[in-house]
Each structure stands twice: as C-alpha cells, then as structure tokens.
C-alpha cells in the first residue's frame, strides 16, 4: 500500500468512514458553524467527573482500535507496528475526512500515548520494548502518562529528585511527581528519575517505562479551578522495576526527556484554524457574530489580530516539521509551542472583549459562558511542556546561537546544588 496515491487513499478512507461512523451533525468547529446546534467546546483541559472522563477515554480507545483494523490509527508508522508506512500527506487527508464524521472528543491522554510516548520508545527502547509496547500504545490498547514534573523541579526539570537506585538487576523508585495528566487512567508511565546524585544535574538522570499498577505507587487527583481533575500527584514508595524497563542508557534520561518534550512541543500536524485544545478562530468569529459586535471597529481589528496569528502559527509549525525532516522534533519546535500558547492567550483576551459579562455569567445562552473554560485553562499551557521563558531560552541559545544564560550549578554534582 506504500505506493497508493493520496487521492486513491482518500477514496478508500471515505468509503470506510461511511461504513463505520455516522456523519457529523451541525458542527461547532468547521467552516459552516450552525450557531446553537450541537455541542460548543472550547475547553483547554477537561472538566469532567471521574466516571465521565473514564467513559470518554474508553470511547476513544474503542475508536482507535477500530481504526487499527485498517492501519488508519498509525498511517505514517511502519507496517511492523500496525501502521501503513505512508506519508504525512496521506495522514492529513485522513484527518480532513474524519472531521466530517462523529468521532470521540480529544483527550490529552490519547495524545500523550500516541504522539509522545510511542515515538519516544521507538527512538530509545530496546527491540524487546518496542515490540512489546509501541503497537499497543499506537492502538491505545494501553494508555500512558508522563511522570516528569515535581514540586521542587517544575520549570527546571533537570533539577528533579525522584530517586532510582540500582539493586542487582532491579531499580528501586522513591519520590513524587506532579501534574501528571490522566495518571489515574493510565496503565503505563514514562518516568525520569535521579539515578546518580553525584553527577551534574543534566547527567545523572535515567528514564524508565513504569507499569502504573505496581505496589508502592499512589495516584492522587488534583482538583483544578476549572472543575476537572485530570492532573495528579503520583507517589513512589520503594517501587521495584526490572532493568529491562529502562528507556535508553543509564544517565541519559535528560536526552530522553528532551525527545519526549520535543514531540509535545510539535504541533505541526494540527492546522491552526481547525478545532483543537482551546477552540478555534472560527468559533471565536462565530461567537462575535452571534453577540452582534462585528461592526465595532475595535473588535474587528482584534479579531483580525487573532486570524493573522493563526495563519503565521500554521506556517511556523509546518516549517518546523520540514526542518525535522521526519526525525524527532528539534529546538525549532519551541518556536511553534510559543506561537501556540501566545495564540491561546491572545484568544482569551479577545473573547473577553467580545463577550464582556457573558463570559462570567451563565445565562444559558449557547456558546458564550463556555468560553470561561478556555480563559481558565489557557494559562496552563504556558507552563506545560516547558514554560514560555524556557522556550525563549531554547530558541535563543539553540536556534539563534546566542550566549547561554549564566548558570551557577554548571558542572556541580546535583547533591551539592543549593536549594
């Protein structure tokens, strides 16, 4: 199938979708928004009760496994992992067609499993690990979470202190992680831990794949201000895992983490004007039209600022994808991530001007109060995957070649760094 044209592939996909999914109802995300019809979602993070979120994930898993029967879940992946070995153009053609059908809503756990951890294992895992896990994660037979951030090492991820001590052919894990999305629903987690406190902080970390049902692991959900509790604290108390679950060489955890974060910062597969976390330009425009403010010159100017940003964002992300040339995303992904978070902040500001009191008063009017979930959630992505300040440092130092920021901990053993 690797030589099938995009047009012939699209025809096959259209026929399969017609047999396996219902056509989309009046959409709130495409170019023909019907105001007042269907669900209006612009949330950044889910604000669901536990059982509702679990049900959503089960629905996503079922649809992913249905697609896996044809390889549509992993179009650009090799055949040995259940994929089709086709181009990104084929994948984009599928995504465009799927938008015309009723499919499950997005969830960050799906994105983490398929878009972050599966490719990280493909880059660093042993052959046994890749054979055991990659296809399973791509089809969402099992779900994953990231176990990176810690209470004492947020923006400075390299300062993490969760310990991994080697005991024979096993590692013993002790410590705490935080902000782990969907850890309560995940079967596996990608963990970065401190394996050598005598080495400089960037050199003394090791990465692991950890089954989340092991004795000694405790997951505690965190209530968010938007009402949901997707985030979690995860505690490790003498958790034992075999060395065969190590991801990459001992002491190379920072390299593994950067690779995963590179995938997290790469939004090149998402068109900036299409539906995504936090809503789209079309939803913003429809909202402004519905409340009757598009004749206001100031509002018109602000709407165009958002539109221009979405177009530049899309071009920037596509350029970053071209620079990656099919490999793991490089530092250019930080520019795309900055554009994305700045775009969400701009959208928050503009929709606040568009809606005024409607943003904070739930009158039952369709498509208005829902925007408060965007405004409350958008600041979170300025931290997730590396803060905006970290992204600017990466772009400055690794893309533009500017001098690095002064570091007082350079070359010092992690245990000797002042805290």
Structure at a glance:
With 419 residues, this protein is of the alpha+beta class. It contains eleven helices and eight strands.
How does this model look, in words?
The chain is α+β, with helices and mostly antiparallel strands and 419 residues long. It has 11 helices and 8 strands. It has helices spanning 6-20, 50-68, 88-98, 108-124, 127-138, 253-265, 281-290, 297-324, 332-355, 371-377, 388-399, and strands at residues 144-147, 163-167, 170-178, 188-194, 205-211, 217-221, 232-242, 246-247. Strands 1-4-5-8 form a 4-stranded mixed β-sheet. A 4-stranded antiparallel β-sheet has the order 2-3-7-6, with no helix packed on it. A hairpin with a 2-residue loop joins strand 2 (163-167) and strand 3. It is globular, with a radius of gyration of 22 Å. The model is unreliable at 268-275 (pLDDT under 50).
Break the fold down into its secondary structure elements and pairings.
Blueprint: H1 6-20, H2 50-68, H3 88-98, H4 108-124, H5 127-138, E1 144-147, E2 163-167, E3 170-178, E4 188-194, E5 205-211, E6 217-221, E7 232-242, E8 246-247, H6 253-265, H7 281-290, H8 297-324, H9 332-355, H10 371-377, H11 388-399
Helix pairs in contact: 1-3, 4-5, 4-6, 7-8, 7-9, 8-9, 9-11
Which CATH top level class of the domain at 266-399 fits? Answer: Mainly Alpha
Taking the sheet with the most strands, its summary is: 4 strands, mixed
Query: What share of residues are in beta strands?
Result: 5-15%
Extract low-pLDDT stretches: 268-275
Overall spatial form: globular
CATH superfamily of the domain at 266-399: Butyryl-CoA Dehydrogenase, subunit A, domain 3
CATH architecture of the domain at 266-399: Up-down Bundle
Query: First CA to last CA: what distance?
Result: 56 Å
The proportion of residues forming helix, as a percent range, comes to: 40-55%
What is the CATH topology descriptor of the domain at 266-399? Answer: Butyryl-CoA Dehydrogenase, subunit A, domain 3
**Largest sheet: spatial strand order:** 1-4-5-8
Count of alpha/pi helices: 11
Helix and strand composition category: alpha+beta
């Amino acid at each position: 199938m690797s030589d099938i044209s995009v047009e012939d592939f699209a025809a096959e996909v259209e026929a399969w979708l017609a047999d396996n999914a219902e056509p989309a109802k009046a959409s709130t995300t495409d170019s023909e928004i019907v105001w007042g019809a269907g669900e209006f979602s612009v949330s950044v993070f889910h604000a669901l009760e536990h059982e509702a979120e679990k049900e959503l994930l089960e629905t996503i898993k079922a649809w992913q496994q249905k697609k896996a029967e044809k390889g549509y879940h992993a179009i650009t992946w090799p055949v040995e992992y259940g994929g089709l070995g086709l181009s990104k153009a084929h994948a984009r053609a599928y995504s465009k067609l799927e938008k015309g059908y009723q499919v499950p809503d997005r969830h960050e756990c799906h994105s983490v499993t398929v878009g972050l951890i599966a490719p990280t294992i493909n880059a660093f895992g042993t052959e046994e690990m890749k054979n055991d896990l990659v296809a399973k994660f791509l089809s969402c037979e099992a779900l994953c979470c990231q176990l990176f951030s810690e209470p004492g090492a947020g923006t400075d991820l390299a300062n993490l202190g969760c310990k991994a001590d080697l005991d024979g052919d096993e590692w013993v894990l002790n410590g705490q992680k935080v902000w782990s999305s969907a850890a309560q629903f995940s079967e596996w987690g990608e963990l970065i831990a401190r394996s050598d406190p005598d080495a400089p902080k960037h050199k003394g970390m090791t990465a692991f794949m950890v089954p989340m049902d092991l004795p000694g692991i405790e997951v505690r959900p965190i209530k968010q201000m938007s009402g949901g509790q997707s985030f979690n604290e995860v505690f490790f108390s003498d958790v034992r895992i075999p060395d065969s679950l190590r991801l990459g060489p001992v002491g190379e955890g920072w390299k593994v983490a950067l690779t995963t974060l590179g995938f997290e910062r790469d939004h090149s597969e998402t068109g900036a004007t299409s539906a995504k976390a936090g809503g789209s330009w079309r939803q913003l425009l429809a909202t402004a039209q519905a409340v009757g403010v598009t004749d206001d010159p100031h509002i018109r100017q602000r709407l165009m600022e958002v539109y221009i940003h979405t177009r530049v964002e899309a071009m920037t992300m596509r350029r970053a994808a071209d620079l990656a040339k099919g490999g793991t995303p490089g530092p250019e992904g930080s520019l795309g991530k900055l554009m994305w978070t700045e775009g969400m902040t701009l959208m928050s500001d503009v929709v606040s001007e568009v809606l005024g009191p409607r943003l904070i008063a739930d009158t039952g009017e369709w498509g208005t109060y829902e925007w408060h979930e965007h405004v409350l959630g958008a600041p979170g992505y300025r931290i997730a995957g590396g803060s905006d300040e970290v992204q600017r440092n990466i772009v400055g130092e690794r893309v533009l070649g500017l001098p690095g920021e002064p570091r007082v901990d350079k070359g010092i053993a992690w245990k000797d760094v002042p805290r």
